[in-house]
Amino acid sequence: MATRFSRRSVIAGATAVGSTIIVKPTRAADHKFVQYHNQPAGGTLHKNLVAMWDAVRGETNGRVETTVYAENNKIAGGDPEALKKLLAGEIQFFTLMGGIIGTVVPVAEAQQVPFAFKSAPEAHKAIDGPFGRYIGEEMAAKGMYLFPVAGFDNGMRQVTTVNRPIAKPDDFAGMKIRVPPGQMIFDTFAAFGAQPITTPANQIYDALKSGKVEAQENPLAIMQGYKLDEMVRYVSMTNHMWSGFNLMAHLSTWTALPDEIKVVIENNAAKYVRQQREDQGRLNAGLRDTFAARGIAFNEVDQAAFRARLPAVYATWKEKLGSKCWALLEAEVGKLG
């Protein structure tokens, strides 16, 4: 005899967590995915990725189920190891800075040409247009699918230091500074006279505490997310690079999905990328006052003095990236070098 369920009995049988009721999907997922990213669980990237994949699950009636792991699930090798997992199909979705993608797809480093973008919105416009599409084409050749609106925001990068502020390039002389993987950012700080050292993002705090490095460079939101304000005393507003987190998929996994699933994922990706950009922009803008109130000293810098150290870097990278990529970038930001 068939069992009949009333609305009351269905609600009563749902799983309760605190004041939230979670009703299990009516069907098992057809597609189960893993999404990695390198930011803390409390940050705007994690919150918007979780919201994005929740929306995808709802709009596909449970056909797509994705688990989002903050800090790359704390794998030992950090971003480079997570990128290898994406290329191997061991994870299906990942967000990553262009500089690190550039270890596999060199033109992706163009997102982080020093002093190219004057603001985060200018960078967003570029990566949503022909410049970003060209990078996506090159990524596809290496087995990665870059979403049409892919650039979650990190923000404009500033230099934070333990012992002295940075006012001119000579202040970098001999300074050990943590930078993310990527040859362009190494070349940039080497041109200033610094000694670039790389660590995973979630190890910056320990590197500063131990004295392995005496400086790091990131948007202010990263200072907050990893509590770096406990370690540094100075913030020099260099605005030397923009960086973001490119949303990408394992290409073979993506192409195998039904078209109607792809549409739902892409629509929600665009929605939540734009939402996160707003969230991150507000966060970065408000943190200067927050940190200053804690006694951290801020100073402005004259970018012209720093750019004057970079002609060889620009010339080298114009050749490495190729004339098409460089022309697309300059179409957005003006002449470089």
Automatic annotation (TrEMBL):
Source species, domain of life: Bacteria
One annotated Gene Ontology cellular component of this protein: outer membrane-bounded periplasmic space
Keywords linked to the UniProt accession: Signal, Transport
SUPFAM superfamilies in the record: Periplasmic binding protein-like II
Localization per Swiss-Prot or TrEMBL: Cell envelope
Gene Ontology terms: biological process: transmembrane transport
Presence of the UniProt keyword Transport in the record: yes
Classification via Pfam families: DctP
Stated family: Belongs to the bacterial solute-binding protein 7 family.
UniProt-listed NCBIfam families: dctP, TRAP_S1
The protein's name: TRAP transporter substrate-binding protein
Species per Swiss-Prot/TrEMBL record: Candidatus Acidiferrum panamense
